[in-house]
Every structure is written in C-alpha cells, then in structure tokens.
Amino acid sequence: MSQRTMQAHYEPNWKLTQARNLRGYNCGYAAKRGNETFDEHQQSLVWQLLGDTPITSDSVVLDVGCGIGGPSGWIFDRYQPKQLLGLEYLGTSVKAASRRFNGAAKRPRFIQGDAHKLPLSDNQVDVIFNLESALHYADKNAFIGECLRVLKPGGTLCLGDVTTTRKLMFAPIEWLNKLPSQFNSNVHLWSAVDYKNAFRKHGFALLHHEDAAQPVSDALEDGLDEIRGDGFFSSWKATKGFRGRVGFLSVMSKMLRRHWLHYDLFRAKKPS
Ligand SMILES: C[S@@+](CC[C@H](N)C(=O)[O-])C[C@H]1O[C@@H](n2cnc3c(N)ncnc32)[C@H](O)[C@@H]1O
Q1: Which of 259, 161, 260 is nearest to 210 (CA)?
Q2: pTM (2 d.p.)
Q3: Pocket of ligand 1, candidates 44, 88, 252, 261: which has the most ligand atoms within 8 Å of its Cβ, to mutate?
Q4: Which of 50, 79, 123, 248 has the greatest count of CB atoms below 10 A from its CB?
C-alpha cells in the first residue's frame, strides 16, 4: 500500500477537519437527527462502538488506524486507561494527533505503523479499537489474526466499518486496486457476513453486531447541513478538494440510505 495514495486520499479530509475544527475522520452516529453537532456525532460513534466493553485504570487500549487522534483522546479522557496507544499509517496524521496532546503529562501515545503487522508482542492488549479504517486493509484476515495475537485472553476487538453486500458494484474499485499504487483506490470493502466468518475462523466469539447504516447516514446529513450552513462552503476559501470531499460525503450518505453501502459495528472477544 502506498503512503502517497493514502496521503492523497486524506488530504481533503484534513482540509475539512481543519476548516470545521473537527477531531475525527469518521462519519459519526446520530441516534436522532439534529440534536448534536457533527463533532458530537463523531464521539457518539465511538461510544456506540465501544458499548459495554470494560475499560479500567488497568487497561491497555490500542486504537488501530487512529487518524488525527480524536477518538483516542475521547477514550483516554473518559476511561483514563493505564495506556492508550494510537497506531496510524500516515506519518502526517501521527504528528497531528501527537500535537493535540503536547505538554500533557497523562496522554495517549501515537506511533506510525501498519495494521497488517502490529508492532506489539503477544497477549498485551485488553481492548483493540478499530473505527472506519479496515476498509483500507487489503488483507483483513492478516489484521484480524494480528488482533488475536496481541489481545490478552478475554480481550475485546471493537471494529466499525463501511461494508457492502453488493460485491458487483464495487468490482470497479477492486479492479482499480490492481493498478499502480499512485492510481489505485486503497478501498477494499467486506460485507458483514465476511467479517462474521473471519471472526469465527480466527476463533473470536462475536459479542455484538449492529447494522448502523441509518444512524451513520443521519449523522452525515447533520454534518453536511452544518458544513453548508455557515457560508464557508460557498465562499472563495473552500478549495476544490474541500468541496469534493463534501460531495463525497453526500454521495456516501445517499448510498447508505439506499442500502448500496452498509455500516456495521462489531464487538468480538478472544477466548479466555
Ligand atoms: C476514516 S479514517 C478513521 C480515523 C479514526 N479511526 C477516526 O475515527 O477518526 C481511517 C484511518 O485509517 C488509516 N489507515 C489506513 N490504512 C491503515 C493501515 N494499514 N494501518 C494503520 N492505519 C491505516 C488512515 O490513514 C486513516 O487515518
């Protein structure tokens, strides 16, 4: 996987988060439309994915694909775990995440790394948090195997992702991925059934599964209203990349509504 393609993919996202003062790169979760800001929706998605997962002051939490560190920071502030490590593929995002906590004595730590090969020893982690990142992993089985390896017995994997049931529709994306890395899409979607089968194959016990397409689409619609509402979107300051990203989110929301795309939340446990 190429850093350059991934960087290009996240450049407009970075512009959007900067312009809107956001801290996450995810689509958000709205239990009800219009009752929260988009920043709050992004936090709600984190709590919805974690559910009742136990995190205590003794816990070690690993946030894989942590982006610019919003979710890691929210989890750290709420639970004060012994250690929270954010792992992220893009060096620029690792820097942005670290900057957020400059000077804080107690804080999450961020490192550059690849989800396909986690730089941790076996049986070390209580909770792995993985939000809207696995869609980029070409070999999700390798990632799930790595999760099993680094989790302590009884540890939990919380995985939320954009999914599909329409293999055919995404065939062009998979085809694009065969092109040289500077042209490919770096998106490899699985269905919820693919995930469930993989968890079972690797020996995880599925604790929870939720189809979250509707609340995620509602959060995106609230976010789009917010973005377009304050005049920035139509001002000269909004770049082509920024507008393109907003257009992409709008298409994504419509696809979720029409069930052409799905969004699933899973919690799975490594046997004790
Ligand atoms: C949609 S963002 C979500 C970020 C964060 N989880 C959040 O909710 O704000 C997906 C992130 O996964 C990262 N990513 C993609 N492939 C990765 C890999 N193989 N290993 C680690 N991180 C990866 C991307 O660089 C990006 O920051």
Answers
A1: 161
A2: 0.94
A3: 88
A4: 50
Query: What confidence tens digit (pLDDT) does each residue in 47-99 have?
Result: 999 999 999 999 999 999 999 999 999 999 999 999 999 999 999 999 999 99
C-alpha dist (Å) from residue 158 to 16, 32, 52, 261: 26, 23, 11, 20
The answer to whether the CB of 218 is under 6 A from ligand 1 is: no
Cβ(28) – ligand 1 distance below 6 Å: no
Q: Is the CB of 129 under 6 A from ligand 1?
A: no
How far does residue 23's CA lie from ligand 1's centre (Å)?
Answer: 13
Question: Tens digits of per-residue pLDDT, 143-162?
Answer: 999 999 999 999 999 999 99
Two tokens, residue 131: 């939000």
Domain ranges of the chain: 3-269
CATH number of 3-269: 3.40.50.150
